[in-house]
Amino acid sequence: MKIETKLDILVINCSQRDDSKSLEVSKYIQKNVLKAISNLSSSILDLSLHPFLLDHYGYGRENDNVLMDKDKKEVLDRLYACDAAIFVVPEWGGMIPPALVNLLLLCAYGSAQGLPLGHKPGFIVGVSASGGGTYPISLLKGYAAKNSHLTWTPLHTIISNVEDFLKNDWSPKDNHRFSQVQSRLVTGIESLIIYANKLKEVRSELVSLSKIHPFGQ
Question: Residues with Cβ < 8 Å from 198, sequence gap 6 or more?
Fold first, then answer.
C-alpha cells in the first residue's frame, strides 16, 4: 500500500503480566503485518515493563515518585511520537487490564500536559484465551476516547483461542478460520494507516480545538 509520508505506528501491549500472550500477539503483528509495509516504522510499548503506571493515582510512597515520574515520561514520549496506535488488549473477566485504564487516564490533557493521542487513529485487537475478546472492544470504544481525544477506527479484530491462533502459519488469503482473523488484522491495519496519513495533515488544528474543551463535555 502507498504511504504518503513516513509514519510511526506504536503497538501497545496492554497486558501488565510478564511474557503474556498479548505481547506475543504484538510481536506477531509487527513481524507479519507492519514490517511488510514500506515507509513505516513501528515499535512496541509493553505495559508490563512500566509497573509504576499502576501507581499513577497512588499516594504516600515518596521513594517511588522518581520511578513513577520516569515511567510516566518514557510512556508519554512514546505516545507523543507516534502517528497511530494498535492496542492489543487481553480480556480479563470481561474487563480491560488496570494498566490500560491508567494509561488512558494518563493521556488526559491535565495529566499529559497536552493530548499525546489527540486525533490519532487507534485500532483495537481483543485477545482471549478462550472464546471471548469482545468486551475490550465495547469498553474502549464506549468511553476511552472522551478525555484522550483519540480516534477509534470502525474496524477491529478479535483473536479468540489465542494459543491456537499463534500456532498457525501466516496465511491471510486462505479460507481457514484463523486465516480469516489474519485477514482482518491486515485489513484493519491498512485502514489504520490510511487514517494516520490523512489525520496527520490536520491533527494540529484538531488538537487546538480539543484544548478548548479537553474533557469531552
Answer: none
CATH of the domain at 163: 3.40.50.360
**What pLDDT does 3 receive?**
74
Residue 14 lies in a domain: yes
Instruction: Provide the mean pLDDT of the chain.
Output: 92
Residue 203, all three cell numbers: 491533527
Reading the block at residue 195, the C-alpha cell is: 487514517
Residue 210: name the closest of 83, 99, 57, 107 by CA: 107
User: Which residues have a Cβ under 8 Å from the Cβ of 149 and sit 6 or more positions away?
Assistant: 115, 117, 118, 119, 207, 210, 214, 216
- pLDDT band at 55, cuts 50/70/90? low
* pTM for the model: 0.94
User: What are the Cα distances from residue 122, in Å, to 110, 148, 155?
Assistant: 21, 11, 10
Q: Residue 106: give the domain boundaries.
A: 7-210
Burial (CB count <10 Å: 0-12, 13-18, 19+), residue 96: buried
* Rounded Cα–Cα distance for residues 159 and 60 (Å): 40
Residue 60 clears pLDDT 50, i.e. is over it: no
